[in-house]
């Protein structure tokens, strides 16, 4: 596809009622015409297209340079629209929707005939989600069709949690970026496969396993063998990666961190530290970021911090290793893939 001039995307704010309505109308106009636009969700910014238009979905893959075998999630603004996207809507899906929708939970179910192969990577299932961000809800209602919307970033790179992140990475490839503020969840949705029995978490998120178990009563063990066709995004070994090399390390004092830093193969002046418990002084590091030792706050901040490290020219990012508890599992998943 032809590339647009650098930074040519129109950027529309949404911070008044009139601006919000104007952005909805403009985005809907482009989506009806088969275009791809960047829109805010509560998890990360999405690169949206009409999920029922195979050619429009192919444009998402072209813009992101995303491999065709990696499926995308379909976003809806009602349970009724979700039911149209799947071949069968079980009682368990209703229970989970009542508990967690609108919100950061994607349900994988057998796809209906209206969902094109491009959305599902040719597989028999589709992931559907009802996001809680008011802009994408209003946009879906205005369009009248569901939106395929993977994260608005080049394939395998850092997800975008602000409109500025999108502009820097994709601003020359798309016509419109809607600025809905910073994403307040900050990492991608939990993905739960309801086409399996018992249900299986394909991608951890900020809706944790214990919360899901309270509804489902049973979940497949993590690490159970998966299908050859991917059912969900976020399953590739390398994903969510900054340009800089990312490593995780545990240190108890500043001297231990400096000894480790001297072994990573670049000058300390090219190393950025992200800490949450043991906070070093800036010293000779290129930068030190501190994120609260709280999983929700950490999730909200981590992608922005990684973007900032890249923008500062860091060559290595050392992140203080996370606690090995359920609350941190989704963040640990993202960082392990980013470091792969």
Give your account of this protein's structure.
- The strands form 3 sheets. Strands 2-3-7-4-6-5-9-10 form an 8-stranded mixed β-sheet, sandwiched between helices.
- Helix 1 (17-32) packs across helix 6 (134-143).
- The two termini are 30 Å apart.
- The chain is globular, with a radius of gyration of 20 Å.
- The longest helix is centred in the last third of the chain and has 18 residues, at 295-312.
- It has helices spanning 17-32, 54-64, 79-85, 91-100, 117-120, 134-143, 163-170, 209-216, 254-261, 295-312, 329-338; strands at 10-13, 37-39, 46-50, 74-75, 105-110, 125-129, 147-148, 176-179, 190-193, 200-203, 245-249, 271-275, 287-290, 316-320.
- It is 32% helix and 17% strand.
- The protein is of the alpha/beta class and 340 residues long.
- It folds into 2 domains: 10-216, DHBP synthase (Alpha-Beta Complex); 245-338, Threonylcarbamoyl-AMP synthase, C-terminal domain (Rossmann fold).
Summarize the structure in short.
By secondary structure, this protein is of the alpha/beta class. It is built from 11 helices and 14 strands.
SSE topology sketch:
Blueprint: E1 10-13, H1 17-32, E2 37-39, E3 46-50, H2 54-64, E4 74-75, H3 79-85, H4 91-100, E5 105-110, H5 117-120, E6 125-129, H6 134-143, E7 147-148, H7 163-170, E8 176-179, E9 190-193, E10 200-203, H8 209-216, E11 245-249, H9 254-261, E12 271-275, E13 287-290, H10 295-312, E14 316-320, H11 329-338
Parallel strand pairs: 1-8, 4-6, 5-9, 11-14, 12-13, 12-14
Antiparallel strand pairs: 2-3, 3-7, 4-7, 5-6, 9-10
């Amino acid at each position: 596809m032809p590339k647009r001039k650098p930074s040519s995307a129109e950027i529309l704010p949404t911070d008044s009622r009139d601006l919000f309505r104007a952005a909805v109308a403009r985005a809907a106009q482009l989506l009806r015409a088969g275009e791809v636009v960047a829109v805010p969700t509560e998890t990360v910014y999405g690169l949206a297209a009409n999920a029922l238009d195979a050619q429009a979905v192919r444009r998402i893959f072209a813009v992101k340079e995303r491999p065709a075998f990696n499926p995308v999630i379909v976003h809806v603004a009602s349970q009724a629209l979700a039911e149209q996207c799947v071949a069968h809507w079980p009682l368990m899906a209703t229970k989970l929707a009542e508990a967690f929708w609108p919100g950061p939970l994607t349900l994988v179910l057998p796809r209906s005939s209206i969902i094109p192969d491009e959305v599902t990577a040719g597989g028999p299932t589709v992931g559907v989600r009802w996001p809680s961000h008011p802009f994408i809800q209003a946009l879906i209602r205005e369009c009248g069709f569901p939106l395929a919307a993977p994260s608005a970033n080049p394939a395998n790179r850092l997800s975008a949690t602000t409109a500025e992140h999108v502009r820097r990475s994709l601003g020359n490839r798309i016509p419109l970026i809607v600025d809905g503020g910073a994403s307040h969840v900050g990492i991608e949705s939990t993905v739960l496969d309801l086409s399996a029995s018992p249900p299986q978490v394909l991608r951890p998120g900020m809706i944790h396993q214990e919360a899901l178990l309270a509804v489902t009563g049973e979940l497949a063990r993590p690490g159970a063998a998966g299908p050859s066709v991917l059912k969900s995004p976020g399953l590739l070994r390398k994903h969510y990666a900054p340009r800089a090399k990312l490593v995780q390390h545990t240190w108890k004092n500043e001297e231990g961190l400096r000894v480790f830093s001297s072994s990573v193969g670049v000058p300390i002046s090219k190393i950025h530290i992200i800490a949450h418990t043991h906070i070093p002084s800036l010293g000779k590091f290129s930068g030190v970021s501190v994120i609260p030792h709280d999983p929700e706050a950490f999730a909200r901040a981590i992608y922005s911090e990684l973007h900032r490290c890249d923008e500062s020219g860091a060559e290595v990012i050392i992140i203080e290793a996370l606690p090995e508890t359920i609350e941190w599992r989704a963040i640990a998943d993202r960082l392990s893939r980013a470091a792969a």
